[in-house]
Predict the 3D structure of the following.
Amino acid sequence: MSNNIVLKRGLNIPIQGAAALKTSRTVKAGTIAVKPTDFKGFSPRLLVREGDRVLAGSPLMADKQCPDILVTSPVSGSVSEIVRGEKRKLLEVRIKADDTVEYLDFGVQNIAGMSAQQVKELLLKSGLWTALIQRPYGILANPEVKPKAIFVSAFSTAPLAADTDFALGSEAEYVQAGVNALTKLTEGGVHLSLSAANCSSTPFHKIENVVSHTFEGRHPAGNVGIQISHISPIRKGETVWTVSLLLLAAIGKLFATGRLDLARKVAVTGPVAKNPSYVEALPGMNMKDIAEFYDNSKGDIRFVSGDALSGTSIGPDGSLGFFDNQVTLLHEGTEREILGWAKPFRFNQFSSTRSYFSWLCPKKRYAMDTNVHGGPRAFLMSDCYGKVLPMDIYPIYLVKACLAGDIDNMEKFGIYEVLPEDLALCEFVDPSKNDIQAIIAKGIDLMIKEMA
Amino acid sequence: MEENTAKQPGLFEKGGKLGWLHSTVDAFDTFLRVPGTVTRTGAHVRDSIDLKRILIIVVLSLVPAALFGMWNVGYQHSLTFGLGWGFWHNFWFGFLQVLPLYLVSYIVGLGIEFAFAQVRGEEVSEGYLVSGMLIPLIVPVDVPLWMLALAVAFAVVFGKEVFGGTGMNFLNPALLTRAFLFFSYPSKMSGSFVWIAQTKANALADATTGATPLAYLGECKEAVAPLTDHFSYMDMFLGTVPGSVGETSVIAILIGAVILLWTGVASWKIMLSSVAGALFVGWIGNVCGVSAVPAWAHLIMGGFLFGTVFMATDPVTAAQTETGKWIYGFLIGALCVIVRLFNPGYAEGMMLAILLMNTFAPLIDYCVTSCSVSRRAKKAKIA
């Protein structure tokens, strides 16, 4: 069964600094940080101490509620530092990497002969269980649950996102292995969404054992949440899992080679990135390891792990997140523009509306910075949000329900179907400058607390 | 032109010596310079659009109607009293008549907005810039200034601030100002005397000379002659007829409408459905013999077009859902013409039609969203 779904609503953000399709070098891991905060719903119990020696695949932390869920080291070396924040919250486990990575051997698997239980056990043991994200709420998958289906998006429409074919095209066989393993965990099958633009040329159109779909449209057409809402919307009481193509390949590699190999091509992008291109790196790579891409002598760069819309700001000493294969470097826009809003033209600013004239140059790319371009206000406009959200929900009603903490209305207006990233564009276009993703995240936290 | 001020602490910032004034200072400061704030969470980059830009576009779109209104005030005065003034004389007379209305509207309205923002410690919202621009255009030019001040104060405090300020109100503040004036001081707001600016030297004595086209509407049951004897349709289209300051010229309003629609600031769905509603009821009126005035004439008479373009489309008080906007707009147009056809005592139905639909907009939205929610639920059961 294959079908093409055309999404009319959405917006591609024309930001400068797309990565050239070449791998400039392999980043040699110095110190790798493993961050439990990458995993929503994970409350870490530390399993190592400073000075302990670990291999790639050795457990570092376990979940307090479900001790089978492990977070493992992506690299071999010794635990150099345990970073804690306020109230001793565990923020990072830092590992001084060896020169050559030694892998813990999980054994090459014959997937066809494995039972669901065996697949589950291997994923848990290797730490790759954390790659599975459970919806509603976007939390760690619960091993006790059998999901309705598993969804994978095989393309990304996020601003400056890594080109899927370039970054992962050579790993199609591992993706296939990953699919074969994950189909054992659900009866609804694995759904793979391809971009209609290259659905016949991409290496992933040959993946078997999946229900494939094609999507056509602007961002957020590549968001798995949007795709689910068009394939099979999540209703109250239902559970689905999602996994990124990147980590699906890592899962396949685990089964095919017996190793936890999280190495990936990372796109270093953004308007202030010098010669933006790809590097081979591990999750947890420190920003200082890619110093040739930026000049932060003025301290005015924002380091984002992920894309410019829903990535995480990690700071100059931060490290790449577990799920990310993109770094976005942005200028901190603290400058104050004189009479900005009153100027008839603002040639170097992008607006999706016709209130400015950037619609006259649809091909132009802008050096966007982190300035908010206005002060926070109450919601005034009503039509700009729906135009960038190709889902059958009323975004502002949902946001207002979240603000009010009104569980009934949050349910009615579709809180089960969305994650903050799905409404990132609503936040981008919002003339009232509200932090819509943060509001949705707070609403989801409330749901988790109240519905537990 | 640009400087980095993020790190300098200021006299007026929170915690500073005059920190309690920070809302007011901030309002003027951000008026001149875009704030240097950066995103904290979520989308790291943002669209350059903000409410200041959106609202200034609405203000700009009102400028043609305001300028024409000023000229027309002088023209009507000159015409009525046979003064034979030229173009600039007309305009200057009107400008001097309308300017005090603007001063009162903005000083009173913005004063209250600033005071409330100050007390709440919030930033001053720009919403009143539009309301303040609208109010002088929808009142008779001779309205006493103290009445206008009182009405503005009432509308801003009880129409907006008690609900939490711009964005939280459910009635259009500009129309509320007009409604307050109309119900409190009907003698200054209706009849035939109020629409022409009068001076001490030139005061109206003849009861018929100052009437607006709508005043003749009730007499047009069998034929349109009572209306067309006084005004040609072309006059009404150009706007050289008596009426509220900004509402008379269809051309000036259409220029504004083009700006609003082109920039996407106002909803074309509301405008289109409002026109459709008016034509529909006007057509029924023609067919049933209630009125001989052709349906399309309602579009160019009185405040219909001004209300449709600038008031019904107020995003805060209109319906919020796209389907709701069709219903909301249609009912405004329909109600307006119903009032015109069946209430000869007060023929201008636009104000009441919009205020009534403002009140019902949340209900329309509730129905639309409920339908959508139950439709989704049904779909889920099938799947």
Notes: The beta strands of chain B are 3-4.
